[in-house]
Inverse folding.
C-alpha cells in the first residue's frame, strides 16, 4: 500500500470548493487520469452515494467505482475507491484560511495482482506528479470562476 498527501490553497470560499469536489462527476474536468464518472442515482452527494467511473492510471482504461464513506460539509469527505487491480481511500480535508480554502488531498491505495510490483512507482508518481497536478488544475479552474 502507498499513501500520498498533497495540499494547496485555493482563493475561493470553503463551501464553493467543497460543493465542486463533492460532485464526483466533476472529476474528469480536473483529474487528468479520470475519464468518466457516473452517479448511480440522482440524489445529491451524501454518505453512501456511489458512482461508476473509468480512469487511466496506467496505460489502459480501467472501470471502477467510488463510494462516499465520510461526508462532513464543508470540511471533509472520504471516498472508498476500487478499480481494476487497485483499492483504497481518498480523503479531502478542507479548512478556511484568509478567505480562501486549504485543501489537503490524501490517497491510500493498495495494488494487487500483476500491478503489485509497480506499487512503489505508482505511489511516487501520485505523490510527486499526479496529486500536485490535480490540485493545480482544481485551483486554476475554481479561481477562474
Amino acid at each position: 500500500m502507498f499513501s500520498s498527501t498533497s495540499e494547496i490553497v485555493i482563493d475561493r470560499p470553503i463551501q464553493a470548493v467543497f460543493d465542486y469536489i463533492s460532485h464526483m462527476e466533476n472529476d474528469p474536468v480536473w483529474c487528468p487520469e479520470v475519464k468518466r464518472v457516473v452517479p448511480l442515482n440522482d440524489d445529491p452527494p451524501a454518505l453512501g452515494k456511489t458512482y461508476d467511473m473509468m480512469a487511466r492510471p496506467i496505460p489502459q482504461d480501467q472501470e471502477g467505482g467510488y463510494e462516499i464513506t465520510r461526508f462532513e460539509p464543508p470540511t471533509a469527505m472520504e471516498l472508498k475507491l476500487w478499480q481494476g487491480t487497485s483499492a483504497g481511500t481518498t480523503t479531502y480535508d478542507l479548512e478556511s484560511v484568509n478567505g480562501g480554502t486549504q485543501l489537503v488531498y490524501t490517497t491510500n491505495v493498495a495494488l494487487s495482482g500483476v500491478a503489485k510490483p509497480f506499487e512503489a512507482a505508482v505511489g511516487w508518481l501520485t505523490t510527486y506528479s499526479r496529486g500536485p497536478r490535480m490540485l493545480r488544475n482544481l485551483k486554476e479552474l475554481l479561481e477562474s470562476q
Q: What stands out?
A: The helical segments are 14-22, 27-30, 119-143. The CA atoms of residues 35 and 109 lie 19 Å apart. Residues 2-143 form a domain with the Alpha-D-Glucose-1,6-Bisphosphate; Chain A, domain 4 fold (CATH 3.30.530.20). The mean pLDDT is 92.
